[in-house]
Amino acid sequence: MKNILFIIIIIVSFSCAEEKKSIEEIEIIPQANSDTISNKIPVLNFATFHMGKTSDANSTEFDENDRKNQQDAKRIAEMISKFKPTIVCVEYPTEKDSILNLEYNEFLKNSSQPVSWYGEIGLVAFPLASMSGLDKIYGIDHKMGYNYRIAGEIENQIDSVTVNNYYENPFEEYPELGSDMDTLNLLEKLKLMNHPKFLDFLIVVNADILAYAGTEDNFEGADEAAKYYQRNLRIYSNLNRIPMTPDDRVFILSGGSHTAFLREFFERSPKYEMVDTFQYLD
């Protein structure tokens, strides 16, 4: 079970024995640039790790109170501000929007001072929203538990070979993604996390691989994976509750696996069009 837990946490802290390419050598597949599309709402769907203590199991070592880290995070916000968002959404429960905006309003009173509230929300989303002249931000998260350890807790009678081989070397198909996060600066980490191949990996490791696990005539793995799909669909539904017009520009800051699922929904959306994240990470 330690192996399975490691794979889940590997979202933000991982290494691989395979020969690695540098961040610059990984081929970037551009997303559509919606600046040329008038009938859809542009969305900058941005993956991050959690830059502080959260209730999320997937966190990484990052001192949110370190001055250099705070300055680096603000530079990321400045880069993203070129997108000119009119709506900023974060991974925070929708039903706690009043708390979220109370903290944001406190930040606005002295926006020159860094705030590490809720990690990346205070460090990136607050300054970004302030730079963009916004008076509020939106939480779109919906908490739901699921058991990502299920494959190691049951006698797998579906395909234990595939499951075990995958957990043994999850980067076999994408060795170029097997970078040691501790060697990367903040910008490099975020570039890696927003790479399309890495986002694909996050869906497999968090959900799809569980469909290979189950007991005879049962679907324990698939059912747990479905819970994670459901959580992300509910996050997407929360986004759709926000009043918008075609003139809006939406920025979403969330953990990598949520970004990965949202990307799938946006690619088929009749309402939204994703912009190329890497256009704003130079």
UniProtKB/TrEMBL annotation:
<protein>
    <submittedName>
        <fullName>Uncharacterized protein</fullName>
    </submittedName>
</protein>
<dbReference type="InterPro" id="IPR043749">
    <property type="entry name" value="DUF5694"/>
</dbReference>
<dbReference type="Pfam" id="PF18950">
    <property type="entry name" value="DUF5694"/>
</dbReference>
